[in-house]
Amino acid sequence: MILPTAEVVSHLTADIKSDHLISPPTTTPPDPIDRLHGNYTNLSERFKLRNKCFKRQYAPLYAARLAAMRPMLEAVARNKWFDVPQVQLNDLQQNKTCVIIGTVFKQMQLKPNILRELSENVNLPPKPERKRYTHQSDVVFLEDETQRISLVGDIETHETITGTVICAKGKETAGGKFEVEDWSYCGLPAQLNNELTEPVSEDRYVAIISGISLGDPQYDPMPLQLFVDLVTGQLGSLKDQTFYSKVVRLIVAGDSLSKHTRDSTTAKQAKYLTTKTKAASISAAQELDDVLTQLVSCIFVDLMPGQYDPASFSLPQQPLHRCIFPQAAQYTSFQSVTNPYEADIDGISFLGTAGQNIHNIQQYTKLRDAVTIAETTLKCRHIAPTCPDTLGCYPYDEEDPFILRDCPHVYFVGNQKRFGAKMSEGDQGQKTLVVSVPKFFDSHQVVLVNLKDLSCFPVSVATLIGDDSVSMEKGGVADSDDDGEDEEVLPDVNILPDDEDMGDME
Amino acid sequence: MSDKRGPDDLADDAKKKLKVEEDDDWAADSKEDSDWAADSKPSDDWAADSKPADNWAADSKPSWGSSGFSSNFSSNREDSRDSYMSSSSAHSSSSSTTPPQLPSDTISRPEAARLDTNSKSLVFQQLDLDYFVGPCHPALSAVQENFTPVVRMFGVTSAGNSVCCYVHGFHPYFYVAAPLGFKEDDCSQFREELNKQVKLDQSKKKEQVESAVLSIEVVLKESIYGYHGKKKSLFLKITVALPQLIAPAKRLLDRGFSCGRFQDRQYTSYEANVEFECRFMVDTGVVGCNWIELPAAKFYQVKENNKLSACQYEVECGWRDMVSLSTEGEWGKIAPARILSFDIECAGRKGIFPEPQHDPVIQIANMVMYQGKTEPFIRNVFCLNTCSPIVGADVRCFETEQELLKSWADFVREVDPDILTGYNINNFDLPYLLERAGTLRVPTFPYLGRIVKEKTVIKERVFESKAYGKRVNKVMNIEGRVQFDLLPILLRNYKLRSYSLNAVSYHFLLEQKEDVHHSIITDLQNGTDVTRRRLAIYCMKDALLPLRLLNKLMCLINYMEMARVTGVPISYLMTRGQQVKVFSQLLRKCKEQNLIIPVYQSNQAGEMYEGATVIEPIRGYYDTPIATLDFASLYPSIMQAHNLCYSTLLTPAETDKLTPEQYIRTPSGNYFVKSEVRHGVLPEILSDLLSARKKAKRELAAETDPFKKQVLDGRQLALKISCNSVYGFTGASVGRLPCLEISQSVTAFGREMIQRTSELVEATYTRANGYPSDAKVIYGDTDSVMVKFNVQTVAEAMKIGQEAANHVSSHFPDPVKLEFEKVYFPYLLINKKRYAGLYFSSSPDKHDKMDCKGIETVRRDNCRLASDLISTCLEKILIERDPTGAINYTKSVISDLLCNRIDISQLIITKELTKTGDDYANKQCHTVLAEKMKKRDAGSAPKLGDRVPYVIVTGTKKDPTYMKSEDPLYVLENNLPIDTEYYLGNQLSKPLLRIFEPILGDKAEGILLKGDHTRAVTVVHSKAGALAAFTKKKATCVGCKAVLKREGSAVCDSCKGKASDIYQKEISQLYNLEEKFNRLWTQCQRCQGSLHEEVLCTSRDCPIFYMRMKVQIDLQAQDNIVARFGEVSW
User: Which residue has the higher pLDDT, B61 or B127?
Assistant: First the structure.
């Protein structure tokens, strides 16, 4: 499809005249452009699992979550409602206004039920995964250490999230329900300002890419190669090269492999049919190794696993094993990290996931916009509240690593439908850039975050051949049937000018 | 209750037990309902519909009441109710049809309106009927004695008030054949002599009466047994003072009795084996659970001070004055009875099942509901120690167990339920409470009945039948409250894999509950008020589920209707077998026709007779529609058509007295007179039942009110079952009145008819007669024949089947009717009583269901893997018409089995422990395992009557199978290898070959049980066993399983290049297991309804119980493999 002579542009090549590639040959070699480097600290140690134990249940995780968050919510409730007494559900008295604190649990009729699936015929093909599991019969419960009570009143059932810890003011009704008058999450945690690192005074970028989806039957290698070439400085004008030399780090936020590499039927097939089969991800993984090798020769790359990568299922997903990347693993600039992933880059703290936390909330609430959901998880101070109820999670004992200790400067979520960014501000002046990173496979976009001022914008790579680009834009919105339901549709940002403060959307 | 009582309680109990046994005296002679279903030729026809009877050894309704009058406790129980308080209009004139307004927030019954005995009648539905022995009523009884039987009816008015009604003046009687020449004048001498002898015989008994034999009458009656040319003969009707005097009187007359000129004669007795309650009900026309009217001015209200019961209305009347209302029409309704469902929790010691002598009762949950409503109006739980409040329930906490028990008994008396229900309350909850209260000396506790001074005592009854095995049942007297334990009812009426409350709820309601093992209960109790609350919620659910089941299965309504149809008290239906029901109907009919029933002396050795016939099946897979023609109610209609009855039976000798037109000879060589000569009693009962059923069905179709619909549906079902049990009654060789001439004639006619049908069909539907091809009967059984008409479509088969049914019916006498019922297409005929097919009846385009008979899908003694595999294969073959798919599926399941990938719950076999190990001559898997488990932990080991789940694990070659049975949990915990060969060879191969042989022929075995799919085998290493401690595992390469030279690496040198591939395969496996782990354990959290508390449930019947254990183990193992590849450093 793509001719070798295809005219290739990046959005930054507005100034065609100074294009070095088609300038007359010179005898003086161009000045080398050095890539900028930043200070880097990996802060994801708490997401690493060692000596895993599965002889456990999930109750300790919930208990730890509630225990850790209760004091924070008690403070919030005191602030908000002053002298309204805080009680445990055991001590509720009818028609007496009070504040209760506990974990939200939504009882949902459509929630996939393994019992029901088992009792139905074992051999029926598995039901296709639903987009949404919300239903008008859903009921919200609040559960504390003692018991649970269903919440009615001023609380929108379809916007509450199972697993979040909240405080609610209201009173018990005669029917044994809790009539909510007002409720709250505990809000953003405090933000640490790294005093030791000098603030960045020049433009330095961190690029985030997600959802490359190698191994998809529709996979087109060109856009990725373009991006690789751009970021490694093998493409574009001097200006482009200069610009990309300021990208200090690339974060690959999950789903580098497509879901087609995850062969779920193998698990169900009889072993005698599968002894000689290989994992479906092998060739895609090799391809990824090739791509990574090109990248890591020039730039630091942090590779996060995602839902479809050859990694564990439960959050936190453990780093992709280096043995999958025999070439790339040779470079010290290659780093395989966990999902979620947290790091300090030049004094700016990054926290991000490959997007499962957001998708899962989308499925079980009527919340749609990724940035809004991501912001909500910040406000409830928990990256993945639906763990473990509907999102796979390691059965932690006595700790919950997903609780936000401090407010990150940048909070990104990968594999979203479209780009979005918002500067979220907390009561105590915390500022967090919330970024929704689109799936590269659909959007051909990579997100750049400027470490100097936390401005942020997507970069699109496109192959402009006739109508191809158009069709690709269309193809970009893969699950378009969903759009009708969306309450707010963000404008698709395609080409952003070279202007630096464009991305900062508040 | 009085403080005087206390230490003597236990002694008193012992006395009462003795007393009760004496009361049983008369019944000991008459063999009660026996297991005739098992003894006589079992016939699918009726056995399928009616459940086999139980064999109560010496079973009779004991008269608990006898000591009530003679005992001298003082009554301190205050009756706070004053029935004269309210002056509003007296209730329930028969015209009021508006539903009563029932209070929903109070515990006590609605206030009782004042009774105006002179101008208003009292109408109530009686639910329980018994009798006691007490002094005669001065006005209502002709005889004046200190001891006379008084019938006691407990019931509810339509306003929801409780009634206790004493019926006076009715005395037990029986008949003997009068000696030749006996005259009216001989009666008084006969009476005096018999009276003397009976009194002498009974002189040691407590209740002495002035005259034991009240009267002798000469009556003209006829014995039902045999045709006597309609000649009546003389009988003596002997009326005695007390029911327990019938047995000695009968015995004396049987042995040889001298009186005046009738020296040393033996008298044959009639109807001496009729229970007193039954006698009363037959003579007054009362049937179980019907409405009773006491007409104005014909009854008395017992003065408040003299009341013996806690009922709101306590009334007395003479037995001739009460009116029994017909269950048809208006009085078919059901009163708003109060149903109390309860459940208790006990804190056992570690490893020991709770014993009432040692272990406390810690919680009692109660739900009270009105019959006809769907939600309970009282929900509470009595807790020992503190307990956090529960939303929507009343939590009552007590510091001591004594207080708890005392308050609960008070609560029961305050609620005053008509019906007590629960799950296994008769064999666990109630006896435990009573024994515990005895141990703790709570004097007021054991008075749970409505008769204030009557103490509730426990009696044990051994129950043994061929069908159910041996059980020890506990029986308690709770006067006036029907004990409606759901467990035995489900045991009798439904065939299930498991009868735990959890399994039953899941099966019928698709609801599960947390199942807490009794060993954990103590820990929860000893925890905090929060853990006790958790227990309370669990306990309440256990009390609620029986009510849900009761509503869903309509047990109560169906039982009430059965009681009405058969005319016995509802309590008989739970404690007695089938025979008493038929006997009651027979008695009623005989009374109408002036017939009497001889007392049959049963002989244990039952004669055998030939059963139903089976037309040899032509086995195969039929890909054409097969029409099935059925005889509707075959046996009942044969009995009607040929007038088969006791009263029409002729001995061969007697045939001489009749003309050949007047009698028939049955195919079995017996003679019966035709209905023109004498219409039989049994045919009449049957035609009554059938027409009643038709009527009920008509009304059912017309009825719109859902509640009345339920009643009518229950009725028609009861009628159908009753109809079918009549044949069984005549064939029960140890029954009340067996008559093999009848039963063998019935089956002989049946055989002949099936044969004839087959001939007629094959002779009529031939090519010669213009039909497309010759019809062929491919199979026939009991009451149906399967015909291959060689038509192509279901619609055609339906048409021709209908036609054939009409054609054949015309060849048989009324009311025998051959009906076309269904078409099977396709049809897999495996063997006699084993077939499967798609069942078309209503529409030719869509099948109603897949019908499987006698195939492993429904058998309970197979593991679930076998039944699931077979049913899936059948579905693939029959519905999808994809035999290849079925074969591939079978192969993959067999491969999974060999690779240890089958969920262990699929491999579990359950058998009921009916005897302990020592009782069995041959060792069996479940008994051996039960012994083994007892040694490990006596507390959790299965007990008598439990169903024991086990799996077969590998042992040494010579080990017999029973040595290899093991507890599934133990297998999981210790990673014991499953004996896949056993499962393949003993569980799967036979049923598989059976269904595949008609399709694959001889190759079946080679294709299914051998081949590639059997070669990949996973070897499991046990953690238990003698050698496990000595073995050392050497690390092998994850990729090629070669033993590694160096420890600590994942792959061998030659696999190093493929490390990425190997890793990706393993991580993918880990991914799948993690997903499963997550889904299973979050499901359990949702089910238990709590996030912050550990899942404690140990419900072995839950489909994911073993799965979630296995996934923990598998996941840990898989994680270890993945970890061998080394940790990823940043």
Answer: B127
Shared domain check, A392 and A283: yes
CB distance B59 to B32 below 8 Å? yes
Query: Per-residue pLDDT for B695 more than 50?
Result: yes
C-alpha dihedral, B1043 to B1045 to B1050 to B1052, nearest 10°: -80
Query: Mapping DSSP to helix (H, G, I), strand (E, B) and coil, where does residue B396 land?
Result: strand
Cα gap A256→A304, rounded to integer Å: 9
Q: How far is B858 from chain A (nearest CA, A)?
A: 16
The count of structural domains within chain A is 2
Q: Which two tokens stand for residue B815?
A: 């009311």
A7 located within any domain: no
Residue A488: count of CB within 10 angstroms of its CB: 7
Whether B490 has a pLDDT exceeding 60, the answer reads yes
Distance CA A147, CA A143 (A): 6
- Is the CB of residue B678 less than 8 Å away from at least one CB of chain A? no
| pLDDT exceeds cutoff 60 at A317 | yes
Which comes out higher in pLDDT, residue B1049 or B1118? B1118
What pLDDT was estimated at residue B892? 84
Tell me the residue type at B650: L
Measure CB to CB from residue A271 to each of B391, B899, B1068 and give the nearest one: B899
* Token pair of B261 as six digits: 């000129």
Looking at residue A478, its pLDDT comes to: 36
Q: Is A417 left (phi over 0), alpha (psi -120 to 50) or beta?
A: alpha
The per-residue pLDDT for range B132-163, each reduced to its tens digit, is 888 887 777 777 777 889 999 999 998 889 99
Q: Would the pLDDT of B165 be above 90?
A: yes
Q: Is the pLDDT of residue B342 over 90?
A: yes
CATH of the domain at A93: 2.40.50.430
Closest-approach residue (CA) in chain A for B537: A147
Mean pLDDT of A250-254: 90
Residues in chain B within 8 Å Cβ distance of A151: none
Residues of A within 8 A of B1067 (CB-CB) are 310-312, 321
Whether B1128 sits inside 8 A of A312 (CB atoms) is: no
- Quote ipTM for the complex: 0.83
- Strand bridging mode B626-631 / B595-596: unpaired
Domain residues for the domain of A147 are 81-184
Asked if residue A165 is part of any domain, the answer here is yes
Quick one: A117 exposed, middle or buried, by C-beta within 10 A (0-12, 13-18, 19+)?
middle
Whether A167 maps to a domain, the answer reads yes
Residue of A146, A313, A319 with shortest CB distance to B530: A146
- Segment 532-561 of chain B within 8 Å of chain A by CB: 533
Q: Are residues A310 and A247 in the same domain?
A: yes
CB distance from B1082 to chain A under 8 Å? yes
For residue B391, the 8-state DSSP code is: T
How confident is the model at residue B89, as a pLDDT?
Answer: 34
A50, A52, A66 ranked by CB distance to B1092: nearest: A66
Residue from A55, A115, A325 whose CB has the most chain B CBs within 10 Å, to mutate:
A115
Q: How far apart are CA B198 and CA B245, in angstroms?
A: 8
Among B1067, B1105, B1116, B1124, the strongest candidate for a mutation testing the A interface, having the largest count of A CBs within 10 A, is B1067
Using 50, 70 and 90 to split pLDDT, how confident is the model at A353? very high
Residues A161, A226: one domain? Answer: no
What is the Cα–Cα distance from A406 to A190, expressed in whole angstroms? 5
Shortest CA distance from B388: residue in chain A: A90
506-525 in chain B: CB under 8 A from chain A: 506, 510, 512
CATH number at residue A257: 3.60.21.50
Are A211 and A294 within one domain? yes
Are both A151 and A207 inside the same structural domain?
A: no
pLDDT confidence tier of residue B62, bands split at 50, 70 and 90: very low
- Residue A6 domain flag: no
